[in-house]
Amino acid sequence: MAEAEAFIELGRLNEAREVLDDLLSWGDQLADADLATTHLLIGRIEFQQGALDQALTEAELAQSLFELIPHPLGLAEAGMLLGAIHDRAGRLQASLDALDLALLRFEELGDRRRQSRALVQLGTTLMRANQTDEAVERFSEAARYFRAVGDRQGEGAALINHATLIARGGRLFDAEPLFERAREAFEDAADLRGQAMALGNLAAIAGDRRDMSRSIELAEESLALFELLGADTDIARVSYNLALLHRRQGDLLSAELQIRRAGEAFQRQGAVLMQTRALTTLGAILVSMGRTEDVAEVMQTLDALEIEDPAEQSMIHIVRAEQALQQGEIQLARAEFQSAYDLMAQIGAENHLLVSRLNLARVDLAEGQIVRAEQEARALLAAFDEIRMANRQVDALLLLAAALIEQDRPEEAGTSLGQAETLLTDSPDAEQGLKLGLLRSRIADPVLAEQRLEWVETTAGEQGFSPLMTQARALRLGLQSP
User: At a CB cut-off of 8 Å and minimum separation 6, what does 125 contact?
Assistant: First the structure.
C-alpha cells in the first residue's frame, strides 16, 4: 500500500493501480481496514484520471467499509475524497458538506495536522463557491498552524493552494508573491516536488505576463526537479506548458510536437484529465493552422475518452466552436460556445465565464449584430482590466476595433488598436499580433495597407497560421483589383 501511495504521488497511476488490484486479489487475507483503504486509493486514482462516477463508487464503498469497522480516521479520509469528487463535478454544496464532516472527525481525533490539510481543501471548494472571505480564512488558519508547529512543508501546501485559487481568479500579480513564499517554504522543508510545483506556477504567471525568457527559465528549472524525482506526470505537464510558450511565440510546429509528446505521455500514465487538456490544446493549435482533418481526428480521440469534468468538457466545445466559426458555420459556433459557457457557469468559474462571453460576442459580430458586439467588448475590456488579464484585454480590444470598423468609425478603431499594440509590446503574442495587423490594414491608406498585409501574409505563412495568411492574401488581392 505504501508503494501504491508513492506511485500515486509520482503520477504513475497505472503502476499504482496494478499494485492495488494485486492487493484486492488477496481476498480474505486483507484486514478490513486495509481493504477499505485499498478502495479509497483506487478512488483517488479514478478521480485523477477523470472517471468521476467510478471514483464516487469507490469512495462510497470505502466509506461504508470504514463505517462497519468502525474506523474514524478512514471515514475522515474518505470524506476528503468525496469532497474533492463532488467539487470537480460541480456539486459544491455536497462537497462542502463532506469536507465539513471530515474536518469535524479530524477535530474529534485531535489530529491537528490532518485537520489543517482539510482546511486547505475546504478553502479550495469555498473559493469555487465564490465564498472568498471564508476560503481565505481557512487558508490562513491552516498556514498559521503549520507555521506554529514548524511544518514548512504544510505551510507551503497552504500557500500554494491559496495562490493557485487567486491565480485562477485572474489576480496573477496578487498570486505571485504567495507562490514565492510557498517556494521558500518548500526549500526549507527540502521538498523537491513542492519546489517544482511552485516554480511551474511562477513560470505560468511569467508566461501570462508574456515575460517569455523568464517563463522558459522557470519552467526548465521546474522540469529538472521533476526529472530528478522521476515524476512522470509532472514531467509531461511541464513539457506541455513549455509547448504553450512556443505557441505564443508563433512556433506552431514545435508547439504541436511537444504537446503531442505530452499527450502520449499522459496516456501512458493513465492521466486522462491531463491527456484531455493536451488534446484540446492540440485541437486549438490545429484550428489556428487550418488543418481540418487533423482537428477531426483529435476530436474523435477526445470523444472516446468520455470525460465528465465540466471544465474539460467546456474546452472541447470551444475547439469545435472555433473551427465552426472559421468555416463560417455561425449557428453551430454559437451553440458550441453557449455549451462551453453553461458548463463554466455550472462550476462557477468566473474568469472563464468572461472568456465565454467574449467568444459569444465574436459570434454576434459574425452575425452582423455589431452594436451588441461593441457593447459587450467594452464591458469585457473593463472586466479584464480589473483582473489584470492583459492577453484577454487584447482580445477584447481587437473585437471592439473590428466592431467599430464595421460601423465605419476608423478613428475610434485606431485608438483601440493603439491600446492593443501597447499591451502587446509588454506581452507579445504572435497570433494576436497578426490579427492586429489585419485590422490595421482595414483603416490604413492603400499603400500602407498593402505593406501591412504583405507582412501578415509572409509572417503567418512562416509561423503556420494558414487561415490568417489566406485572409491577408485575399485582402491584398482586393486592394490590387481595379
Answer: 83, 87, 92, 95, 96, 99
Q: What is the pLDDT of residue 170?
A: 66
- Which pLDDT belongs to residue 261? 86
pLDDT of residue 418: 96
**Pairwise CA distance, residues 435 & 398, whole Å:** 8
d(CA 342, CA 210): 30
| pLDDT at position 270 | 74
404, 442 contact by CB (below 8 A): no
- Rounded CA-CA distance 147/167 in Å is 23
Q: What end-to-end distance do the CA atoms of the chain give, in Å?
A: 77
Listed as ranges, residues in the chain with pLDDT below 50 are none
In this prediction, residue 441 carries a pLDDT of 95
Are 283 and 298 in contact by the 8 Å Cβ rule? The answer is yes
> Which class for 425: exposed (0-12), middle (13-18), buried (19 or more C-beta within 10 A)?
exposed
DSSP 105-170: HHHHHT-HHHHHHHHHHHHHHHHHTT-HHHHHHHHHHHHHHHHHTT-HHHHHHHHHHHHHHHHHTT
Distances in whole angstroms, Cα of residue 374 to Cα of each of 78, 388, 393, 399, 406: 50, 21, 14, 7, 10
Cα separation of 453 and 90, whole Å? Answer: 46
